[in-house]
Specification:
197 residues; globular
Length: 197
């Protein structure tokens, strides 16, 4: 970033102009876009310090071909694990999209994130619980290794059962536990090589 723009605000607005799902220039199609430049642009925005800028780029994750995706998975993983230091209110957008992408491709490093990113004491829980549990169920039998962590989460929500939202979250977690215990699906889980991003 430019020394006078340490938070990357110029890049932030460029990210909106290009990637915003409603009005961005790339919102409807990546056809004809130079893959190398696209990968470089996505990588740069995912390193931006603003959660809303990072989340703007998440809309292209499902549009990327496998070659581009392979280059970006380590950076997407990092943006999923590390919350943006500013624009926190919008930071779950890219984190949940990243988690869902890792689960879609059965990336092993995404398994613990399915429980870790619930973060029961942080704002915006309603959006995270259902998406994290759905991502976890996508791993099939491999998700069984997360059952102890899920049971801890179950206890946390059970302790606040008087709260109607906590009761709803508790039910979602319990349904996820039951689903994982009975599933026979065994998708192949692969590890993500994490070179420096």
């Amino acid at each position: 970033p430019h020394p006078a723009d340490r938070r990357g605000y110029r890049q932030r607005y460029l990210a909106f102009a290009l990637f915003d799902q409603r009005t961005g220039l790339l919102a409807n199609s990546l056809a004809g876009i130079d893959t190398d430049r696209l990968v470089a642009g996505v990588r740069a925005v995912l390193a931006n310090q603003d959660g809303r800028a990072r989340s703007a780029v998440a809309g292209v994750f499902d549009e990327l071909d496998y070659q581009a995706l392979r280059q970006l998975l380590p950076v997407i993983y990092r943006a999923t694990v590390e919350q943006a230091p500013s624009g926190v209110m919008f930071s779950d957008g890219v984190r949940m999209a990243g988690l869902e992408l890792l689960a879609k491709h059965h990336i092993a490093e995404g398994l613990p994130l399915c429980v870790q990113l619930v973060e029961p004491d942080r704002w915006g829980l309603d959006n995270r619980v259902s998406r994290c549990m759905k991502a976890l169920r996508g791993y099939g039998r491999s998700a069984r290794e997360m059952l102890p962590a899920l049971r801890e989460l179950e206890e946390q929500f059970a302790a606040n059962q008087g709260d109607s939202e906590a009761s709803e979250y508790l039910e979602t977690v319990r349904q996820t536990i039951a689903s994982i215990e009975k599933t026979t699906r065994s998708p192949r889980v692969r590890s993500l090589d994490l070179p420096s991003c």
